[in-house]
C-alpha cells in the first residue's frame, strides 16, 4: 500500500488526485488474481476523471456485473454457497437474514457440504478398492460392511439437514404469517397496528376485507410477510365468498397463522362459546391466538383458561385502547424466534444448513442415491459404486465442485491398499 499521485497515463504531468494504491499479489486477493486498487477522493469529478484516464489503457475495461465474484468463484476462493451468501448479505433486510447470510458468505455451509462430499467419496473409495482388488489378501476383511455403515451414517446426516422445517429458506424469503378469524374480530386493525400505518380499511361493517393484503415487516429481527384476510363466514355474496376461499388457502399455505377473535363474541359471562365454525378447521397446534376487544368485557383475565388455550401462544388485547399490545408484541416476537430459531444456545437445535431450495433438491437427490447404494450387496459393488458417485456429484452441485475424480485420487492415495 502506498500513497501516490494519480496521473493520466498519456499525460503524466496531469495530476488527477492524491490517493492510495494497494496491490494484492495473486493468489492472496479476493479474485485470486493480481489486483491493484486505486483509492481516490470520492468527488464525482475526480472519479469521472480517473475512470476516463484508465479507459485510455488498452488492457482495461469496466467490470461486468458480478465479475469480481465470478472470478473469485473460478479461482476457488468462493464456492456457490458463499456467492449466494454474499448476494443474500446485500439483500438482507433483517437481523436474522444478515446473520444467516454472513455464515454462508464466511464459508460455514461450504465446509459442511464439502465434508459431506468428501465423506461420500471416502465411502466410494472403499467400494472402488473392492472392485479393483476384491476382498481377500490385499484388502482388509469387512470393507464392504464398513462402507455400508458409513453410508447409513451419511444418509442420517443428510436427513438431519433436510429435517430443518425449512427454517433457513423461510428466513431468507420471509416468514408468511396469515391473520385470520371471523368478520369484525379486528384482523385489519391488527395489521394496521403491526404496520404502524393505515394499510388496511377498518370499518364496523362485517366483511370489509375481501382480498388479501400483504405487508412486509420486521418483527423481532425476523422478516415477516403479514397477510390480512377476509373474515371467515358463510356468505351469498360472490365477491366475499371468493375472498373467504382465498383466506382459507392463505392460512393453509402460511408458515404460521394468527387467529384473531373478538372476546365479547367468544365468551359470555359464564360459559365459553365454541370457536366459529369457519375458523375451527384451520386451527392446528401451531396456531397463535389474539383475543381482541378486552375493553368490551368485564373480566378479561381468565379468558385463556375459559378457552383452554396455552399461555405462550395466546394474548388478550384491546387494539382500540392499546391495552396488552406491548405484551402481545414482545410475546409474539419471542414465539416467532422460538419457532424459526437460527441458533440454540444450548445446542439442541442445529442452525439450518439449507438456505436455498436448490440445496434441498441436491441433498434429496444425494440421499436417494445413497439409499440406492444400500440396496446392493457385495456381489454388485460395481453398480453400488455408481450410486455413490452420483450421490457425491449431487452434493458437489451445491458448492459447484462436481469433479469427483480429483478427490478420489487423493483419498485413494492413502487408502489401505497398495501397502
Ligand atoms: N371496542 C373495540 N373495537 C375494536 C377493537 N379492535 C377493532 N375494533 C373495531 O371493530 C371493527 C372491526 O374491525 P376490523 O379491523 O375491520 O375487523 P376485521 O376482522 O378486519 O373485519 P373484516 O375485514 O370485516 O373481517 C371496527 O369498527 C374496529 O374499530 C377493540 O379492541 N375494541
Ligand atoms: K370490519
Ligand atoms: Mg378486515
UniProtKB/TrEMBL annotation:
> Tell me, what's a Pfam family for it?
TrmE_N
Q: Where would I find the TrmE-type G domain in this sequence?
A: 174-341
- Taxonomic superkingdom: Eukaryota
**Gene3D superfamilies in the cross-refs:** P-loop containing nucleotide triphosphate hydrolases (3.40.50.300), Probable tRNA modification gtpase trme, domain 1 (3.30.1360.120), tRNA modification GTPase MnmE domain 2 (1.20.120.430)
Point out the signal peptide segment.
none
SUPFAM superfamilies for this protein: P-loop containing nucleoside triphosphate hydrolases (SSF52540), TrmE connector domain (SSF116878)
Q: Name the UniProt key words of this record, in alphabetical order.
A: GTP-binding, Nucleotide-binding, tRNA processing
Q: What family is this?
A: Belongs to the TRAFAC class TrmE-Era-EngA-EngB-Septin-like GTPase superfamily. TrmE GTPase family.
Q: Which NCBIfam families has this protein been placed in?
A: PRK05291.1-3 (NF003661), small_GTP (TIGR00231)
Q: What is this protein called?
A: Mitochondrial splicing system protein
Q: Report the source organism.
A: Marasmius crinis-equi
The UniProt gene name for this protein comes to: MSS1
